[in-house]
Design goal:
15 strands, about 190 residues, OB fold (Dihydrolipoamide Acetyltransferase, E2P), about 50% strand, flat, about 0% helix, SH3 type barrels, mainly beta
Length: about 190
């Protein structure tokens, strides 16, 4: 058991019997009242976000979480099959754990997975990736005075908005956390 002062953003705790990840925690001392900790947390299984107010001397059940690097191999239904780089064991990880980054993953990417024992409780796609544009409408000549964007389909099937100067066959760098275009990659 730990105290609320020992918890940091990103920590995993067991709250009301459910595994939760702390998104944000703040120490507050309002006027003449006792100090408390206000925590925003996300349920790992359901994704639901909640807030809870901890007294400063309350016990919190902190969960030990191990993170490992895995290599994404292929897609199978609603899961990605990944391989542990050290034991070469193959694991099936649900797409929902990757969030928006699941649309931009390609074979061979290195991902980070969080484990509680042998159970996968979280997964993170690479922060950015380089993908090829497979379809987009041609940009209009001379229409570069404004920061105008056009839709494009990438090699993974994901659709994003790109600048007019990008064309089919170009490689673009994508932020997998937001799904936004970052830059065009030469070569």
């Amino acid at each position: 058991m730990a105290k609320p002062r020992d918890i940091r953003s990103g920590s995993f705790i067991r709250h009301n019997g459910e595994l939760c990840q702390i998104m944000e925690i703040q120490h507050r001392t309002p006027g003449n009242l006792r100090a408390f900790y206000q925590a925003k947390m996300r349920n790992v299984k359901t994704g639901k976000q909640t807030e809870y107010r901890y007294n400063a001397d309350e016990d919190v059940n902190v969960v030990r979480v191990e993170t490992r690097e895995l290599q994404y191999l292929y897609e199978e239904g609603d899961a990605f099959v990944c391989m542990d780089n050290e034991s070469f064991e193959q694991l099936s990880i649900g797409k929902e754990l990757f969030g928006i980054g699941a649309k931009f993953m390609k074979e061979g990417d290195t991902i980070i997975a969080s484990f509680e024992g042998e159970l996968v409780i979280g997964a993170q796609a690479p922060e950015s990736t380089v993908l090829e544009i497979t379809y987009t409408e041609p940009g209009l000549r001379g229409d570069t005075a404004t920061n105008t964007l056009k839709p494009a389909t990438l090699e993974t099937g994901a659709q994003i908005m790109i600048p007019l100067f990008c064309d089919i066959g170009d490689k673009v760098k994508i932020d997998t956390r937001t799904g936004e275009y970052m830059e065009r990659v030469k070569g």
